[in-house]
Amino acid sequence: MGTWDIGPFDNDTAADFAGDLDEAALEDREAMIRGVLKRAAGPADFLGIYDGERAVGAAALVVAQHSDGDPACSNYGPSEPLPELPADLRMLAVDALDQVVSNRSELTELWAEAANWSKWRQDITRLRNVLDPPIPPQEEALFEI
Q: What is d(CA 111, CA 5) in angstroms, rounded to the nearest whole number?
């Protein structure tokens, strides 16, 4: 696994995907991101490592355009601008991230063996929570009993 850190583009596969985005015409970049997310989110018996790594990078790009998101680009992320990504990619990215951390994911299997597994998992959870925030517990009762 050509991985040097936990970031979305801190591996060879996602860095190559970022390079592919940079080389593509601006109008083709959304379709590339959508395709990566669909492939990861789709029904499959097993999600391979390369599809998982690209999906995390693509999801980070969706998060980066969210009002609560952080920039996704490290030194290895895309350097060319992306078009405004449509809102429907948010839930597709959530579905893809859910598959990435499922028990049917090769990427999760490999990270589970790494010393910084929990940091990687927290970073995936952070990305997911920007797109689909958890519902906080209710402080007050809706009605008296």
A: 11
Burial class (CB in 10 A: 0-12, 13-18, 19+), 117: middle
The conformational region for residue 103 under phi > 0 = left, psi -120 to 50 = alpha, else beta, is: alpha
Q: How far is 86 from 127, CA to CA, in rounded Å? A: 17
Burial of 136 (0-12, 13-18, 19+ CB in 10 A): exposed
Longest dimension (CA), the chain: 62
Tens digit of pLDDT for each residue in 46-57?
999 999 999 999
| Reported pTM | 0.90
Amino acid (1-letter code) at residue 100:
V
